[in-house]
Amino acid sequence: MQKKDITMTSRLSSILAASTLLAAPLIGHDEHTIYGFVEPLHGAQRVEVKAGRRVTETYVKEGEPVKAGQLLAKLDCQEETLECNIIKAKADVVRVGLENAEDTLRRQEELFAKDVISEHEVTQSRLNRDAAAARFEVCKRELELAEYKLRDFDVSAPKDGKLYRFALKVNAIVPEADPIVIGAPQLGVRLWANPMKCLGLCDAQDLHIHLACASHQATSFKGHILRRSLLLLDDNPAAPTTEKGERFQELVVALEDSEATLPIGVVVTAHPIEEVASAPSLESIEDNL
């Protein structure tokens, strides 16, 4: 790799490490290299977790598969639980008051039927019962809201997938930057390339994918183009641009299952396998001499 490419690769690694997870990389203006990064094939989803809260329990580990609705962790919610218990106790008191008001109304109606009391007394008992019922409905709504808020402290998986990031630890404070990321089990690569570089590429074409991050062992992988943006039709504002202002074309490449252990966010470069196959061999060079 030329010095310019090495410098560009180091710059890309630094940018991706500091940027938001899975954001489009800033490629710069190298118009001859296809750059990108590793991500779950069908995208990743961040799981919303209350930042600043203490983790009390964890039930999974990074890299494990999870099911939609599966409980991943619990957060400290002592204050919210206490508030919920107070509202519940209040609702119990109001409920008992409603039951007493209903019993009183029932007795008053029986006495009125025997001409023991006046209609006014029955009407007053009915009003008291209605007021108690209204107070109980308010308490029920308050309790439902308090219990709903408590669910935010039970961290669950929003969908089936693999835990590509799980940064929650028992008794530690929840970090603010994407502590949990879930994605499809199969990995892919999102690439950006100069439109002119893509003219010779076709759908399902095989590519060589190279890790370009110095913190990982230099390794090559095989993948094939799954889909790509259409020139002039898919105007992606997130795509980098060339020095002439032309948008890079986006390519999504599917990696083989054996690459499922690659960390997401790692910067890669790519080139068609045909470019390697078309390179002259040592034997052909000797034959031409």
Tell me what you see in this structure.
- The protein has 289 residues and is of the alpha+beta class.
- Helices cover 35% and strands 24% of the residues.
- The protein contains six helices and 13 strands.
- The protein has helices spanning 3-18, 78-113, 119-150, 195-198, 273-277, 282-288, and strands at residues 34-40, 44-46, 55-58, 65-66, 71-75, 154-156, 161-166, 180-183, 187-193, 206-211, 220-228, 249-255, 267-272.
- The strands form three sheets. It has a six-stranded antiparallel β-barrel with strand order 1-9-12-11-10-13. It has a four-stranded antiparallel sheet with strand order 2-8-7-4, with no helix packed on it.
- A hairpin with an 8-residue loop joins β10 (206-211) and β11 (220-228).
- α2 (78-113) packs antiparallel against α3 (119-150).
- The chain is elongated and about 105 Å long.
